[in-house]
Amino acid sequence: MTPEQKLQRLGLELPPAPKPVGSYVPAVRAGSLIFTAGQIPTKDGRLISAGKVPTEVSLEDAQAAARQAVLNALAAVMAEAGTLEAIARVVRMNVFVNSAPGFTDQAKVANGASDLLRSRASPERPRRAGPDPSIVANLERVGNRANSLGASENQGEVMRPPQTF
Q1: What is the rounded CA–CA span in Å between residue 84 and residue 109?
Q2: Cβ(87)–Cβ(81) under 8 Å?
Q3: What DSSP element (H or E) covers 5?
Q4: Alpha carbon distance 151, 14 (integer Å)
């Protein structure tokens, strides 16, 4: 089953590759890595969530926003690599959370992104500890990709271990 088919089975589909909203490109290849940048929680051209967690945005809505940002990042990777099957694993993921004072559950927001990536992981490929998904995806399968999720001031950054695909 392809990664795209796995996403469909979860009721998800990759959006079209995001267009830059600043002075950057959504994905750049450097050797066997593809780096993504500026991936925010947009769907159908609209920001799906904005505000501080948890005072203006619920934890659940923030998790959904993190999932959408990862889908956008995967779309950017696919546009660069040609297929998600080319991704051997996610090397690093940065999740930026616009947090209200006193909010300390940034990791729970990041789980919205990590759990989506984990749901795509092949059971025969072990997970490894280390830094996780801005997204840097390793393209080992093809040979020869960092994703920011909802960044703004008063943010908490969560570093997570890599996910295998």
Answers
A1: 24
A2: yes
A3: helix 3-9
A4: 21
Query: How far is it, in rounded angstroms, from Cα 67 to Cα 80?
Result: 20
Q: 26, 47, 22, 145: which is closest to 98 by C-alpha?
A: 47
- pTM of the full predicted structure? 0.75
pLDDT tens, 12-37?
A: 989 999 877 788 899 999 999 999 98
DSSP structure class, residue 97? E
The pLDDT-based confidence of 120 (bands split at 50, 70, 90) is low
- Looking at domain 27-164, which of 3.40.50.740, 3.40.1410.10, 3.30.300.30, 3.30.1330.40 is its CATH number? 3.30.1330.40
- The first and second tokens of residue 96, run together, are 């930026």
Contact assessment for residue 38 and residue 22, using Cβ atoms and an 8 Å cutoff: yes
Mean pLDDT score of the chain, rounded to an integer?
A: 78
Nearest 5°: the CA angle 139, 81, 75 is 110
- For residue 30, give every residue at least 6 positions away whose Cβ sits within 8 Å of its Cβ, in sequence order, or none: none
